[in-house]
Amino acid sequence: MSGELVIARNKKAFFNYEILETYEAGLVLNGPEIKAIRAKEVSIGEAFILIRHGEAFVHNLHIKNYEYAHHISGLDEVRPRKLLLHKNEIKRLEKDSQQDQLAIIPLRLYLKNNLAKLEIGLGRGKKLYDKRETIKKRDLDRRQKHNKY
């Protein structure tokens, strides 16, 4: 994947959810926000996506105020930001999330050709025993790798 620079990953998403589909969405940002993203002053750990009135929004995406942007002050760091998706993708996400009790989660934030993109996933919440199995699998892989050397 040339031209991509990963800014932030949501590591908990893969632990808490079984990701069924992924989508690439653009973000509607202000000038200082994209500068803060390029400076990697972003957190997507608590972020989630809601769809209302045929538009998708990401909530709790924390983008720190850019310190050199004094002319634009008072921007909310966790304000809802609009996602740029095709209309049929939004309809499909809305239908799937309502019918099958699936969640729409941000997976990673990256720059692609100098544009901020958010990879979102349609995921089903894992049960506790699934999480334990994931931990066991990681532990076994780690031990095998350690014994190899």
From TrEMBL:
Q: Which InterPro entries match?
A: SmpB, SsrA-bd_prot, SsrA-bd_prot_CS
Task: Show the GO cellular component annotation of the record.
Answer: cytosol
Q: What are the recorded Gene Ontology BP terms?
A: trans-translation; trans-translation-dependent protein tagging
Under the heading NCBIfam families, the entry gives: PRK05422.1, smpB
What does the UniProt entry say about where the protein is found? Cytoplasm
Q: What does this protein do?
A: Required for rescue of stalled ribosomes mediated by trans-translation. Binds to transfer-messenger RNA (tmRNA), required for stable association of tmRNA with ribosomes. tmRNA and SmpB together mimic tRNA shape, replacing the anticodon stem-loop with SmpB. tmRNA is encoded by the ssrA gene; the 2 termini fold to resemble tRNA(Ala) and it encodes a 'tag peptide', a short internal open reading frame. During trans-translation Ala-aminoacylated tmRNA acts like a tRNA, entering the A-site of stalled ribosomes, displacing the stalled mRNA.
Q: Name one GO molecular function term.
A: RNA binding
Record protein name field: SsrA-binding protein
HAMAP family per record:
SmpB
- Keyword entries, A-Z: Cytoplasm, RNA-binding
Establish whether keyword Acetylation is in the entry: no
Question: Sorted alphabetically, which Pfam families does this protein's record hold?
Answer: SmpB
CDD domains per record? SmpB
Q: Write out the similarity annotation.
A: Belongs to the SmpB family.
